[in-house]
Amino acid sequence: MTRMQPDYSVYLVTDRTLCVSGTLEDVVARAVQGGVTMVQLREKQLCTREFVELGRALRALLAPRGVPLLVNDRVDVALACGADGVHIGQSDIRYADARRLMGAGAVIGVSVESVEQAAEAERCGADYMGVSPVFATPTKTDTSAPWGLEGLRGLRRRFSLPLVAIGGIGPDNAAEVFEAGADGIAVVSAICASPDPQQAAATLRAVARGKRRAAAVL
């Protein structure tokens, strides 16, 4: 099975504790209506059974809409709920083991916090790099110093893998993140904590589309 070619442009990473406008399923559904192109289920506090059940619920919601579902870290949960892939960090399961378990068709992203880690992710054949964090953010406190826009530009010049930027990104700075070379922006609070997830997603999608049109003209 060949790997899918996902659209990383507006990538929602979940956090139930931040949702203010309804259940996580409600927020995800409305965010997809607004233009979210990929969803990562990241719920550190759930037991395995609840994690799988939530994954199945989101998979049932997203699959008919053609939006891929990835699971953070947990390959077992991804397999059990039929997710389209996983996202792994530097202390999670190794990429080679995740690929062997998930299969050739799965989408596997790898968080990178240094140029060396980025080089390894590209060498291994990851589908994309999660550039983490671009800016400081309260939702990710266990990471290295922020890359900043210049760091993101440096990665873009050096590597060909899709770059998904995460960390402190919202409507006010999304455009400059795309301009610095990101193929997608991963957001948590910008959508989960919004009173209107559909509008929040639509705003970010409009930025992504605008940057793509500008790039096509150049």
TrEMBL record:
Keywords: Magnesium, Metal-binding, Thiamine biosynthesis, Transferase
GO cellular component: cytoplasm
PANTHER family tied to this protein: THIAMINE-PHOSPHATE PYROPHOSPHORYLASE (PTHR20857), THIAMINE-PHOSPHATE SYNTHASE (PTHR20857:SF15)
Protein name as annotated: Thiamine-phosphate synthase
Cofactor: Mg(2+)
Binding positions (2-[(2R,5Z)-2-carboxy-4-methylthiazol-5(2H)-ylidene]ethyl phosphate): T137, P138, T139, G168, V188, S189
GO biological process, one term: thiamine diphosphate biosynthetic process
Superkingdom field: Bacteria
Pathway the protein takes part in: Cofactor biosynthesis; thiamine diphosphate biosynthesis; thiamine phosphate from 4-amino-2-methyl-5-diphosphomethylpyrimidine and 4-methyl-5-(2-phosphoethyl)-thiazole: step 1/1
Cofactor binding: number and manner: Binds 1 Mg(2+) ion per subunit.
Keyword Metal-binding: yes
Catalytic reaction list: 2-[(2R,5Z)-2-carboxy-4-methylthiazol-5(2H)-ylidene]ethyl phosphate + 4-amino-2-methyl-5-(diphosphooxymethyl)pyrimidine + 2 H(+) = thiamine phosphate + CO2 + diphosphate; 4-methyl-5-(2-phosphooxyethyl)-thiazole + 4-amino-2-methyl-5-(diphosphooxymethyl)pyrimidine + H(+) = thiamine phosphate + diphosphate; 2-(2-carboxy-4-methylthiazol-5-yl)ethyl phosphate + 4-amino-2-methyl-5-(diphosphooxymethyl)pyrimidine + 2 H(+) = thiamine phosphate + CO2 + diphosphate
Organism: Oleidesulfovibrio alaskensis (strain ATCC BAA-1058 / DSM 17464 / G20)
Molecular-function GO terms, alphabetical: magnesium ion binding; thiamine-phosphate diphosphorylase activity
